[in-house]
Design goal:
Four copies of one chain form a homotetramer.
Chain A lengths: L2 E2 L4 E5 L6 E7 L9 H11 L16 E3 L3 E2 L2 E2 L4 E6 L21 H8 L15 H16 L4 E9 L5 H13 L6 E8 L13 H10 L4 E6 L17 E4 L3 E3 L7 E2 L2 E2 L4 E7 L9 E4 L5 E4 L10 H23 L5
Antiparallel strand pairs in A: 1-2, 2-3, 3-7, 4-7, 5-6, 8-9, 9-15, 10-15, 11-12, 13-14, 16-17
Helix pairs in contact in A: 1-3, 1-6, 3-6, 5-6
Chain lengths: 333, 333, 333, 333
């Protein structure tokens, strides 16, 4: 359940305020020269405190690799890594121990497990995405061998879709002690045709599962996405124009996937995120006994999930494509 | 890859014009009195030819159960079933053998596998959803024991969102030899709190994978969905109002899931579908050699995926919830 | 749970006296010309009634393939098949419905599931191995492409290890209304080096799981097997003599596997089977209420599991090697 | 591939001379008070240097738990742990870098992956069983809640089966610069009836896979094991004597499992181990280019795998039973 992938598998672990987060990447083929600096750079992109738009928790987020690499190369054995939790001010959360934060997993974890690590959201914290980013950066180096590149950008914040407008939405939300939603658009270029499996292994199904596992994600779209609902067939036609190792079409309404299998053209996706649930203002809620109370969030919180979600979306795409790449090795005699 | 679920597993098989489609449901607990009539009724709802809005292929779609039931009850062993393909006019497709139908899986299957069963779309045909519907109807009876009911409806066709308007959009598209997209909205009521697992087993991740495996689906949303992107935290607040075996909130922006785990309130989802790719008019395309040609579709085709997708969406939700129900049995000592 | 394999997966279903047994083979690469006659021949070898040494139940055991084959070739989609249960004399078992047959799964199924299909052993019947044999015969054709051949023989019956002696043991047991145990030895030749994965995916671990899933199997050995326990290192040395695409050694104590990975030399295994539990004589037992009673087996029963287990052992080896062959495609960049 | 279990899953990582070994235990239910001292004690039992019979590598083998525990209790989230490799004298292995050690995985890893971490056997080292023992000790605490206890003992070394005789065999082998094989017998008491699943999930199949994944294991037997081959049905009869929450029988030839499902009586197993391949004497071999050479092992090596395998066998049994216990929660409505 904390594992994603069938051929290229990532098993994640860790809580916001436990000793460390991390994971095990299993299934990486042998012989890849792994660039550790690139992994650290990906972590740095996601790290809080590097961007004025994000939370002020300061974590060095240094990755330590425990296995699977020998003289700089992958050996075919599991690549395990840990990222220590250093700046974990657990006492910030003492006053929230028995309170249910609206829009958070506090109540659902308690209902499911009978207890929960309340500090910083525990396993449900966005901090856990650091492990995802590290694993994704490992996967990225594998798929790059086959020419695949994944690039995500913030494409909407609140009602704005331009860089300037998005920045204004962020500042306005912050000034109001409010938070705001947004969207990340992601494109994978250089994908060979033939990735994805029929029916339940469709590439879009795997990508959707991957993206919807990201904290605060509320939707997954590919190609025309929700726009497809209002279009006619004549308006969304991808006329085939050529067939070599890929299918070429006049446009790319299909988002680079047909019948669950990549065409060889760009794979285009969009993920929408809800506003961060914790606002810097007092809100009404209840405690674990059901009694009404006021929650006045301390701790350090982002105004919008999108800026830090960008590398996480990339990571999930890379993990999914790495898995699909290996699966595709088994499609023919 | 043709299996979905971890605890409650469904393995599907079959092509549009092969001898039969079907599947194996593995993991159904013993002791459930299985109502075969209800399964057949679900199949009848999806069946072409029963609705003036849908394709005219006539299939009796009789389910035959081969195992797993003894004296009317599930035995804990796999429930295997087949649905024969009777009205399979393969010759309808002879003229399309070497042509690539725009918006279909013809080219991608060929690129992936080096060959394909071209008749009626083969494994990529929407016919395969009959097996899904049958398995979903079995899952539905299991989750009903726990009070869970799943109900989907057509909520958008083209630009229309009212019943009358949707019907008009369908008729207009048909009259124009065109096709049209749409959306299905699905609600699961009666779900206990605690379904779903952290991180990669989040309930919305499983539901997204399930829904995105349906033919022609282009997006998955839950709760506020894509609307969440433009909202502020203060606009999308679910204020907790009570906590018993479920978390009760003032509204349900979260769609009944927080941190990947069900709250106990209604789970709300929406799936958008692209227009059916095959139109009843000649279209430009290429053949398998890459040469331009004209495709004049014969065969029998729907104008819109939505009407027949409704029971498929329900089935995928039921399968996912059945899996999550069993998983939840393992959450506590 | 009714699925074996990770890359090349076989999902089985069926009870002794249900409508049909069968399964779904998922993961077969596309492009293999499948010889259906060879599958039927493998079934015929396992079939009761063809050998004077085996049970007298008469089943034609005709395989029907429902999907995954187009114009004689595998398409990369699941190959589903059924084998009808024709000669199912359920009334033979009426007098055993409430009795617990010693050495059978009657009590354990009832304890686990709360009910059971008592007819002919239900899901626990050796009849289910017909589905295994069919799937194995499909896998055999895949691995044959890579030069792998699997051959099993009866190597021990009772205390005898020669063909003549084994036959005498069988006849003596039958004459006494008794049953007798035995062993099957299996060799896989032509295996490339590099099959098997470290730690939990070791080739011998997969083979052991496969063999121990066969009815009445009590042990799995490979290479020196249990003899290894009494040997010294100097007695069981495989001195390396050459290294090309395989590791060549002076002897093959290791059974063709080192560190869980095939060396390229013959893989040698041995599986022991307990005497068939049902004897043609009255035995003391209890009923489901715990009261003592006498069981006088009717129905049709073998004297020894070994003759009919031979093709089942081969099938399980083929399925395991097919899975390992696909896995090995992912070991290097 | 480095994961075992379906419901209670253990993912292992690590090489003999990498920074650390360890793993992730996923699926542990919430609410168990975890005794860390007991885990450390299990590690100490397996640790080299604590027993005059075993290797002289000195490792403190301190476990560090990174996640999944809050205020002493399991939270339902993954329990990740690392064990640092401290006493890793890699230079001991420099002279063996290009040599193939007879009976080891050197050649097979190289053939499979194209490269290998040669230091101390890399991933194929018995050192990796420390992670298994830690995970098994976690599983042991879970199954103990249900009354299950697992106990293994050395039951054979060379030709000896008595404690004194076994010690003599060890000393004789050591004195001769030789090594010797042996066997471990394992009993699980207190198992509820109903563990194990039909066909490929049979309890003995899971146990066999688990045991055969241990370094140097050559066979798995349960109940009568290989002896069953020479017995008659009348000699191996387990006459049922009572049925309550378990099936009671006059004897336990079946080893506590019938039809793949536990009866509720003791589960009895035996695992044979080959002599340690590395002997303290020069042996003939070849190098990676195929040229003959002499290998004079340095490093620190055991004379017999059995003493240190005892806690590993227990660990694998505990992991398997933990998985089966969770699976059994899903068997009935």
């Amino acid at each position: 359940m904390n594992t994603i992938g069938h051929f290229f598998r990532f098993t994640a672990f860790g809580e916001s305020h436990g000793p460390a987060i991390g994971g095990v990447v299993d299934g990486m083929p042998a012989g890849l020269t792994l660039d550790l600096t690139a992994i650290q750079e990906a972590l740095d992109r996601r790290r809080p405190g590097t961007d004025p738009r994000t939370s002020t928790r300061r974590e060095p987020d240094r990755i330590k690799i425990n296995s699977g690499i020998f003289e700089g190369k992958t050996t075919g054995t599991p690549i395990a890594f840990t990222i220590d939790n250093c700046d974990a001010r657990s006492t910030d959360y003492d006053n929230m121990r028995d309170k249910i934060r609206p829009g958070h997993a506090d109540a659902t974890y308690t209902l499911k497990y009978g207890l929960r690590d309340h500090r910083g959201g525990g396993r449900a914290s966005a901090r856990t995405t650091a492990a995802t980013v590290a694993a994704g950066a490992i996967a990225a180096q594998f798929i790059a061998v086959y020419g695949i590149k994944v690039k995500a950008v913030a494409s909407q914040i609140g009602r704005a879709t331009t860089p300037e407008g998005m920045l204004r939405e962020l500042e306005a939300a912050r000034a109001a002690g409010d938070t705001v939603g947004g969207a990340v658009t992601c494109i994978a270029t250089g994908c060979p045709a033939g990735l994805g499996e029929p029916i339940f292994g469709k590439l879009q199904a795997r990508l959707a599962a991957a993206m919807m596992s990201i904290n605060a994600a509320k939707s997954f779209e590919y190609g025309d996405g929700t726009d497809a609902a209002r279009l006619h067939g004549s308006e969304s036609l991808d006329t085939p124009t050529g067939l070599d190792s890929a299918l070429h079409t006049s446009e790319n309404h299909c988002g680079g996937i047909l019948g669950g299998i990549s065409t060889g053209e760009d794979i285009t996706m969009r993920v929408c995120f809800k506003p961060i649930a914790t606002m810097m203002r007092p809100v009404e809620t209840i405690d674990l006994k059901g009694s009404p109370c006021i929650l006045d969030a301390k701790g350090r919180h982002d105004v919008c999930a999108v800026p830090r979600a960008v590398p996480v979306v990339e990571a999930m795409a890379c993990l999914t494509l790495a898995d699909a790449l290996l699966a595709a090795r088994c499609s023919r005699i």
